[in-house]
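Researcher: Checking consistency across runs. Here is RNA polymerase sigma factor again:
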Amino acid sequence: MTDVLGEDEARRTVETVWRLESARIVGALTRLVRDVGLAEELAQDALVAALQDWPRIGVPDNPGGWLMLTAKHRAIDRLRRNDRLDANVAQLGNSFADRQREAIHNGSADFDAVIDDEDLTDDVLRLIFIACHPVLPTPSRVALTLRLVGGLTTEEIARAFMVAEPTIAQRIVRAKRTLGEKRIAFEVPPAPERAERLASVLEVVYLVFNEGYSATVGDDWLRPDLCREALRLGRVLAELAPDEPEVHGLAALMEIQASRFRARVDLSGRPVPLADQNRGRWDQLLIRRGFTALLRAGSTNRPVGPYVLQAAIAACHAQARRAEDTDWERIAALYQTLLHVAPSPVARLNCAVAVSMTSGPEAGLSIVDELTGHSALRDYHLLPAVRGDLLAKLGRMDEARVEFERAAQLTRNAPEREALLRRAYAAGAV
């Protein structure tokens, strides 16, 4: 145990551990109680217990194991009360849970054995597939998985979807209710069912990665724990579906993007734009892994999709030793293909940046101006940020300052807001 902590410090520690371990805890509990809604409720009970106990007893040496064991005890107690125990669970309750419950309080519980349970390796994957079951509408699948697997708050999910927070909350509640009522099996689906659920699974994994890569809210620009979890899941999926090019495309995309982690912030934790990053700090091992995954995607001889195309764009950046060596012509062409395969306003905005690098800022600005009235980008802070950058390159500094200030108002991430305000100040000082 660590020394006794104050309530605020204990709360921050609990929240950090929850981000890292919540998916495995909820997954393990779902395997036990066969009800994802009840599993999350029991996991939350363990979280409350930690908030109550850790300020008094200190943080356990294995906090994830403490949460797991506490949650399992609550699950067993609930099953006992409901008279739904079979012989195996009853034996577990009598021989394991009672012994370990006492061990928690005297500090001798075998937390490592609990958190390293071999079944936990697959629990998160099962959890993703149950959350992405076809019985749920696609938006509900994504929201529920972000909640259960990514450990994201309802507010963070709402930001990722660019929809109202109450809408996301309703989706999550209804999704858990539906899964319980339909008694959806907690399993990785057989091959015939896997394909139809794979697209939403990939979307979820990438949204989790993006929340870690560019946090939508809070005081940190990066949340590496979420990126690591998304990367792990992407690698597992790549082995599960070796003939699916999009699985390898997503894995490649995440590997290459993750390679930039050490260069994406300065010593003060402030964002560093791609063009200004020290490419010597990029992780070459992750880049090689990304290139390998991209080659695997191509070797399937099947039509490419949006993740393969985005990975190819990321590979163009990774291959350039200096920012000025970037093959923007190829990137612009890849974005055009992406817009044909999977059109979206965000892809169009990214394409505008590539066009500005090949045909000048005026050409890029004309595309951005076409997007200013798009409803999906109304509160998207990167739209005014890109517009401000292009205006600054054209020497229209007063207009650029206004755009950077608007972008700063829209973002909920503190380091990003500070960076945008610095750009606004610099534009106004010219």
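Researcher: Does this match what you'd expect to see?
Model: One thing to look at in this run: The longest strand covers residues 217-218.
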